[in-house]
Write a structure and sequence with these properties.
The complex is a heterodimer of chains A (114) and B (113). Chain A is mainly beta. Chain A is globular and about 40 Å long. In chain A, β4 and β5 form a beta hairpin. Chain A has strands at residues 4-7, 10-13, 19-25, 31-37, 44-50, 53-56, 64-67, 73-78, 87-94, 104-105, 109-113. Chain B is mostly beta strands and 113 residues long. In chain B, 0% of the residues lie in helices and 58% in strands. In chain B, a hairpin with a 2-residue loop joins β6 and β7. Classes of the chains: A mainly beta (114), B mainly beta (113).
Protein backbone atom coordinates (compact mmCIF):
# COMPACT_ATOMS: atom_id res chain seq x y z
CA UNK A 1 0.00 0.00 0.00
CA UNK A 2 1.23 3.47 -0.85
CA UNK A 3 2.63 5.27 2.18
CA UNK A 4 3.23 8.68 0.62
CA UNK A 5 0.33 9.62 -1.60
CA UNK A 6 0.29 12.54 -3.98
CA UNK A 7 -2.72 13.96 -5.76
CA UNK A 8 -3.32 14.54 -8.50
CA UNK A 9 -0.82 12.52 -10.57
CA UNK A 10 -1.14 15.01 -13.42
CA UNK A 11 -2.09 18.66 -13.11
CA UNK A 12 -2.55 21.16 -15.89
CA UNK A 13 -2.83 24.84 -15.06
CA UNK A 14 -2.75 28.10 -16.92
CA UNK A 15 0.03 30.63 -16.80
CA UNK A 16 -0.50 32.74 -13.67
CA UNK A 17 -3.37 30.65 -12.28
CA UNK A 18 -2.74 29.48 -8.70
CA UNK A 19 -2.45 25.76 -8.22
CA UNK A 20 -2.23 23.51 -5.17
CA UNK A 21 -0.66 20.08 -5.02
CA UNK A 22 -1.34 17.75 -2.13
CA UNK A 23 0.55 15.07 -0.27
CA UNK A 24 -0.52 12.72 2.49
CA UNK A 25 1.39 10.11 4.43
CA UNK A 26 0.46 7.09 6.51
CA UNK A 27 3.92 6.70 8.08
CA UNK A 28 3.41 9.24 10.87
CA UNK A 29 6.76 10.75 9.95
CA UNK A 30 7.84 14.05 11.46
CA UNK A 31 9.41 15.52 8.35
CA UNK A 32 7.77 16.23 5.02
CA UNK A 33 9.61 17.59 2.00
CA UNK A 34 8.74 19.09 -1.35
CA UNK A 35 11.11 18.58 -4.25
CA UNK A 36 10.98 19.93 -7.80
CA UNK A 37 12.35 17.69 -10.52
CA UNK A 38 12.76 18.79 -14.11
CA UNK A 39 13.29 16.39 -16.94
CA UNK A 40 16.52 14.36 -16.69
CA UNK A 41 17.62 16.22 -13.58
CA UNK A 42 18.03 15.35 -9.93
CA UNK A 43 15.30 16.34 -7.48
CA UNK A 44 15.78 19.82 -6.05
CA UNK A 45 14.64 20.54 -2.50
CA UNK A 46 12.20 23.45 -2.23
CA UNK A 47 11.42 23.30 1.50
CA UNK A 48 10.61 20.96 4.33
CA UNK A 49 8.53 20.84 7.47
CA UNK A 50 9.87 19.42 10.68
CA UNK A 51 6.59 18.90 12.49
CA UNK A 52 5.07 22.39 12.21
CA UNK A 53 8.36 24.20 11.66
CA UNK A 54 8.75 25.40 8.10
CA UNK A 55 12.24 25.48 6.56
CA UNK A 56 12.68 27.17 3.24
CA UNK A 57 15.69 26.60 1.00
CA UNK A 58 17.52 29.84 0.26
CA UNK A 59 17.00 29.64 -3.50
CA UNK A 60 13.30 28.68 -3.47
CA UNK A 61 11.28 31.43 -5.21
CA UNK A 62 8.61 33.27 -3.20
CA UNK A 63 6.11 31.98 -5.73
CA UNK A 64 6.24 28.65 -3.94
CA UNK A 65 4.53 28.28 -0.58
CA UNK A 66 3.61 25.34 1.60
CA UNK A 67 1.15 24.42 4.32
CA UNK A 68 1.09 21.54 6.74
CA UNK A 69 -2.21 21.55 8.61
CA UNK A 70 -1.49 18.29 10.44
CA UNK A 71 1.04 15.46 10.57
CA UNK A 72 -0.46 13.59 7.66
CA UNK A 73 -0.97 16.30 5.06
CA UNK A 74 1.22 18.81 3.32
CA UNK A 75 0.37 21.14 0.44
CA UNK A 76 2.44 22.92 -2.16
CA UNK A 77 0.94 26.18 -3.41
CA UNK A 78 2.25 27.84 -6.54
CA UNK A 79 0.82 31.34 -6.50
CA UNK A 80 1.46 32.37 -10.09
CA UNK A 81 2.83 29.49 -12.14
CA UNK A 82 5.16 30.35 -14.96
CA UNK A 83 6.18 28.20 -17.88
CA UNK A 84 9.42 27.42 -16.09
CA UNK A 85 7.53 25.86 -13.20
CA UNK A 86 6.42 22.93 -15.32
CA UNK A 87 8.03 19.94 -13.64
CA UNK A 88 7.48 16.84 -11.56
CA UNK A 89 6.80 17.75 -7.93
CA UNK A 90 7.79 15.11 -5.44
CA UNK A 91 6.69 14.86 -1.84
CA UNK A 92 8.87 12.88 0.54
CA UNK A 93 8.86 12.02 4.22
CA UNK A 94 11.37 10.91 6.81
CA UNK A 95 10.94 9.83 10.40
CA UNK A 96 13.26 12.50 11.67
CA UNK A 97 15.61 15.26 10.52
CA UNK A 98 18.85 13.60 11.35
CA UNK A 99 21.64 11.56 9.92
CA UNK A 100 20.75 8.05 8.80
CA UNK A 101 17.13 8.83 8.10
CA UNK A 102 15.72 7.43 4.89
CA UNK A 103 13.55 9.48 2.61
CA UNK A 104 10.41 7.91 1.19
CA UNK A 105 8.97 9.52 -1.92
CA UNK A 106 5.47 9.69 -3.32
CA UNK A 107 4.74 9.01 -6.99
CA UNK A 108 4.85 12.69 -7.82
CA UNK A 109 2.57 15.19 -9.52
CA UNK A 110 3.49 16.12 -13.07
CA UNK A 111 2.60 19.79 -13.52
CA UNK A 112 2.03 21.32 -16.95
CA UNK A 113 1.66 25.07 -17.41
CA UNK A 114 -0.12 26.29 -20.53
CA UNK B 1 27.49 23.70 -2.40
CA UNK B 2 28.35 20.01 -2.30
CA UNK B 3 28.30 18.16 -5.55
CA UNK B 4 27.97 14.48 -6.22
CA UNK B 5 29.53 13.31 -9.44
CA UNK B 6 27.51 10.35 -10.64
CA UNK B 7 28.72 8.27 -13.55
CA UNK B 8 28.07 7.14 -16.08
CA UNK B 9 25.33 9.50 -17.16
CA UNK B 10 23.70 6.75 -19.23
CA UNK B 11 24.24 3.10 -20.01
CA UNK B 12 22.98 0.83 -22.77
CA UNK B 13 23.40 -2.86 -22.01
CA UNK B 14 22.14 -6.25 -23.06
CA UNK B 15 19.89 -8.29 -20.83
CA UNK B 16 21.98 -10.52 -18.59
CA UNK B 17 24.93 -8.17 -18.33
CA UNK B 18 26.19 -6.76 -15.06
CA UNK B 19 26.05 -3.03 -14.41
CA UNK B 20 28.16 -0.76 -12.26
CA UNK B 21 27.65 2.92 -11.46
CA UNK B 22 29.20 5.17 -8.87
CA UNK B 23 29.09 8.49 -7.11
CA UNK B 24 32.07 10.48 -5.92
CA UNK B 25 32.53 13.73 -4.08
CA UNK B 26 35.14 15.87 -2.43
CA UNK B 27 32.95 15.98 0.69
CA UNK B 28 32.60 13.37 3.40
CA UNK B 29 29.14 11.85 3.77
CA UNK B 30 27.47 10.13 6.71
CA UNK B 31 24.92 8.15 4.73
CA UNK B 32 24.54 7.01 1.15
CA UNK B 33 21.18 6.20 -0.38
CA UNK B 34 20.53 4.65 -3.78
CA UNK B 35 17.18 5.25 -5.51
CA UNK B 36 15.59 4.02 -8.71
CA UNK B 37 13.08 6.15 -10.58
CA UNK B 38 10.78 4.79 -13.26
CA UNK B 39 9.34 7.21 -15.84
CA UNK B 40 6.54 9.30 -14.35
CA UNK B 41 7.07 7.89 -10.86
CA UNK B 42 8.80 9.00 -7.68
CA UNK B 43 12.18 7.59 -6.64
CA UNK B 44 12.07 4.30 -4.78
CA UNK B 45 14.72 3.56 -2.18
CA UNK B 46 16.87 0.56 -3.12
CA UNK B 47 19.67 0.48 -0.59
CA UNK B 48 20.78 2.60 2.36
CA UNK B 49 24.38 2.60 3.62
CA UNK B 50 25.40 3.97 7.00
CA UNK B 51 29.04 3.04 7.69
CA UNK B 52 32.29 3.43 5.80
CA UNK B 53 33.16 0.17 4.11
CA UNK B 54 29.64 -1.21 4.44
CA UNK B 55 28.61 -3.58 1.67
CA UNK B 56 24.89 -4.26 1.38
CA UNK B 57 22.88 -6.38 -1.01
CA UNK B 58 19.23 -6.29 -2.04
CA UNK B 59 18.56 -9.15 -4.41
CA UNK B 60 20.66 -8.60 -7.52
CA UNK B 61 21.74 -5.19 -6.28
CA UNK B 62 24.88 -4.57 -4.25
CA UNK B 63 26.08 -1.21 -2.99
CA UNK B 64 29.10 -0.14 -0.99
CA UNK B 65 29.91 2.87 1.16
CA UNK B 66 33.47 3.88 0.30
CA UNK B 67 36.18 3.68 2.94
CA UNK B 68 36.99 7.38 2.54
CA UNK B 69 33.25 8.21 2.94
CA UNK B 70 33.49 10.23 -0.25
CA UNK B 71 32.12 7.67 -2.66
CA UNK B 72 29.70 4.82 -3.22
CA UNK B 73 28.97 2.36 -5.97
CA UNK B 74 25.95 0.33 -7.03
CA UNK B 75 26.19 -2.93 -8.94
CA UNK B 76 23.34 -4.75 -10.64
CA UNK B 77 24.01 -8.34 -11.61
CA UNK B 78 22.33 -10.23 -14.45
CA UNK B 79 20.26 -7.28 -15.62
CA UNK B 80 16.67 -7.75 -16.77
CA UNK B 81 14.40 -5.46 -18.80
CA UNK B 82 12.59 -4.15 -15.70
CA UNK B 83 15.88 -2.72 -14.42
CA UNK B 84 15.36 0.11 -16.91
CA UNK B 85 15.10 3.48 -15.20
CA UNK B 86 17.15 6.27 -13.71
CA UNK B 87 19.31 5.46 -10.70
CA UNK B 88 20.14 8.26 -8.28
CA UNK B 89 22.68 8.29 -5.53
CA UNK B 90 22.09 10.61 -2.59
CA UNK B 91 24.53 11.47 0.13
CA UNK B 92 23.72 12.87 3.53
CA UNK B 93 26.05 15.15 5.44
CA UNK B 94 25.93 17.58 8.30
CA UNK B 95 26.79 21.12 7.28
CA UNK B 96 26.11 24.56 8.67
CA UNK B 97 24.16 23.23 11.62
CA UNK B 98 21.81 21.23 9.46
CA UNK B 99 21.50 17.90 7.73
CA UNK B 100 21.77 18.08 3.95
CA UNK B 101 20.83 15.47 1.39
CA UNK B 102 22.62 15.90 -1.92
CA UNK B 103 21.51 14.04 -5.05
CA UNK B 104 23.64 12.92 -7.94
CA UNK B 105 22.41 13.72 -11.45
CA UNK B 106 21.38 10.14 -12.12
CA UNK B 107 22.40 7.26 -14.33
CA UNK B 108 19.89 6.36 -17.02
CA UNK B 109 19.91 2.62 -17.64
CA UNK B 110 18.57 1.02 -20.82
CA UNK B 111 18.43 -2.78 -21.05
CA UNK B 112 18.00 -4.37 -24.44
CA UNK B 113 16.20 -7.73 -24.36
Amino acid sequence: DAMVIQNPRYQVTQFGKPVTLSCSQTLNHNVMYWYQQKSSQAPKLLFHYYDKDFNNEADTPDNFQSRRPNTSFCFLDIRSPGLGDAAMYLCATSRDWATNEKLFFGSGTQLSVL
Amino acid sequence: GQQLNQSPQSMFIQEGEDVSMNCTSSSIFNTWLWYKQDPGEGPVLLIALYKAGELTSNGRLTAQFGITRKDSFLNISASIPSDVGIYFCAGQLYQGGSEKLVFGKGTKLTVNP
